[in-house]
Design a protein that fits this description.
Distance between the termini: 28 Å
CATH topology: TIM Barrel
Order of helices and strands: EEHEHEHEHEHEHEHHEHH
Largest sheet: 7 strands, parallel
Number of domains: 1
Radius of gyration: 18 Å
Number of helices: 10
Shape: globular
Number of strands: 9
Length: about 280
């Protein structure tokens, strides 16, 4: 599994990690087994959030006895992102994931509380050893610039929506993060249930590259998303088999010609007025 630095001063983290949105909605034992299989195969970056509810508990069960292997990330909801609320939310998350620290803690999206207040809480949690780093999620460039002005120069990452049919971050967000040493973590890399189907024009190209490589279309899609250095991704897997499929993409490097074909098959489109999110 390829490793990449998580932010300007962060540790090396698996380029393919594990997401947990809606993971708790299916068979819990199977979800736990999927996360553990992912760890076995090097997908040590696990992402969750208080907004995901019981997913944090599933993560806690999956990493029991293996905490030191894991780069664990969670997020505070904007409605809880006051200074006091952030600290209380973090404590609740730590109890659910059965850990005394998080490797990174994120503001899930921007809300009504001043960024200075949330970041102050992050710094307090970091000083107390409750979190090792912090960052943001769903921030567009104006938000990122506001974050720097609010004392966010130390933010480790920006977690954003990014998949073959939604490449908006490539216009401005990704270049900004590259320039400022901020890791980009791509969530919903398969389109959250909307992976390119057989009737999508670019699917033929995706399948041709996958067949030539002896891989699956989803593995090729993941490799395309992480082709640029600051990008990591966190696909969800609801079964050990799917986890193994995702992990195999962590060693895949596409050729320039393959990247060019996919770029044309799934064009990034015009620059949007605002960053999409789900």
């Amino acid at each position: 599994m390829e490793q990449r630095q998580f932010g300007a001063a962060g540790p090396e983290v698996s380029v393919i990690g594990q997401g947990t949105w809606n993971l708790e909605s299916g068979d819990r034992a199977r979800a736990v087994a999927a996360l553990r299989k992912g760890l076995d195969l090097g997908m040590t970056h696990i992402d969750t959030a208080e907004y995901y509810g019981a997913a944090e508990n599933v993560v806690g069960e999956a990493i029991a006895g293996r905490r030191r292997e894991v780069f664990l990330v969670s997020k505070v909801m904007p409605s809880n992102a006051s200074r006091r609320g952030t600290i209380e939310a973090c404590e609740k998350t730590l109890a659910k994931v059965n850990s005394d620290y998080l490797d990174c803690y994120l503001l899930h999206w921007r809300g009504r509380y001043p960024l200075e207040e949330t970041f102050s809480a992050f710094e307090q949690l970091q000083q107390a050893g409750k979190i090792r780093s912090w960052g943001v999620s769903n921030f567009d460039v104006p938000d990122l610039e506001d974050a720097v002005k609010a004392g966010g120069a130390a933010m480790a990452c920006n977690q954003v929506l990014y998949h073959l049919q939604e490449r908006a971050i490539e216009h401005a967000v990704l270049p900004w993060c590259e320039q400022h040493g901020v890791a980009v973590v791509a969530y919903s890399p398969f389109g959250s249930g909307n992976f390119p189907g057989i009737r999508v024009s670019g699917r033929k190209v995706l399948d041709e590259i996958a067949e030539a490589r002896g891989l699956t279309a989803r593995q090729v899609a993941l490799a395309f998303l992480v082709r640029r250095e600051p990008v990591l991704t966190i696909p969800k897997a609801s079964s050990p088999e799917h986890a193994a499929e995702n992990a195999a993409a962590g060693k895949l490097r596409l050729s320039d010609a393959e990247i060019e074909r996919l770029d044309q098959a799934f064009p990034r489109g015009p620059k949007p007025r605002s960053l999409p999110m789900i």
